[in-house]
Amino acid sequence: MTAQRIDGKDLAAQLRAGLAERAAALRASGRQPALAVVLVGDDPASQVYVRNKIAACKQAGILSVHHALDAGVREGELLARIHALNHDDAVHGILVQLPLPRHIDSQRVIEAISPLKDVDGFHVANAGALLVGRPGLRPCTPLGCVRMLQHIGLSDLRGRHAVVVGRSNIVGKPMALMLLEMNATVTIAHSGTPDLAQTCRRADVLVAAVGRPRMIGGEMIKPGAAVIDVGINRLPDGTLCGDVDFAAASEVAGWITPVPGGVGPMTIAMLLANTLQACEQA
Ligand code: GUN
């Protein structure tokens, strides 16, 4: 079998066109959707991510306001900035780029963001809302994965087994909850799962989010499965690769997402969607 590629770049572009229309409708009704992007320090990877997010906002007609803070900023000062943004009616979404410098408690910063403006969906109130089936703002990366599955016709996963490899708060855990919402039978596996290959081979939908280059080999995939690769790993030669061995997996899977050009662009599209949702509900 040769898997069909799920082109995240292409799908994200289609979705962004629709989002631009939603943004235009909001502006026409006198509301300019706006996202505050907070970057602390000068981590090169974070700078690239923030630049991409700001460019995507501009293209969709969403105002982005960049708050660049020095790497040595005191936690109290960052919290005060978030407090001010929470109370600014012209700001609908607040994104604090992670990771933060070590002297800052990331969870405390996330909890300081108003859940109504938490476009990353990381606040404990949004995480809890997803858990009890009354979702508010949802984490962007797993939401992008859901959109990709819907795009290939996998909207209802009743009778199917989904396996998520990875248990992070940002991807693994919310991904599992969203797959459960789609009626899948869900397994969360991780680096400590015995016989990971056997677990993965049961997956009709396999989501890899471990951050280990090409650790999911072709022999770990059920023939015909949908394989969603969240990993973005940089190899010593500078090239990017996912958590899945793309060439080997393509021989077995039914569908597969590439890296780059798969989940990454979808994450950004979902950030825009969340910002519009926050603006529409403000
Ligand atoms: N750093 C890596 N991924 C993310 C993300 O989705 N949101 C934020 N805020 N920071 C990140």
Quick summary of this structure?
This protein has 282 residues and is of the alpha/beta class. It folds into two domains: 31-114, Rossmann fold (3-Layer(aba) Sandwich); 138-264, NAD(P)-binding Rossmann-like Domain (Rossmann fold, 3-Layer(aba) Sandwich), CATH 3.40.50.720. Helices cover 41% and strands 16% of the residues.
Characterize the structure shown.
The protein is of the alpha/beta class. It has 2 domains: 31-114, Leucine Dehydrogenase, chain A, domain 1 (Rossmann fold), CATH 3.40.50; 138-264, NAD(P)-binding Rossmann-like Domain (Rossmann fold), CATH 3.40.50. The protein has helices at 8-28, 44-60, 75-86, 106-112, 124-131, 140-151, 172-181, 196-200, 246-250, 263-281, and strands at residues 4-5, 34-40, 63-69, 93-96, 161-165, 185-189, 205-208, 226-229, 233-234, 240-241, 255-256. It has a 6-stranded parallel beta sheet. The protein has a 3-stranded parallel beta sheet with strand order 3-2-4, sandwiched between helices. The protein has a two-stranded antiparallel ribbon with strand order 9-10. β2 (34-40), α2 (44-60) and β3 (63-69) form a beta-alpha-beta unit. α1 (8-28) runs parallel beside α10 (263-281), α2 packs across α10 (263-281) and α6 (140-151) packs across α10. The longest helix is centred in the first third of the chain and has 21 residues, at 8-28. The protein starts with a strand and ends with a helix. Bound molecules: guanine. Residues 95-98, 120, 140-141, 170 line the site of guanine.
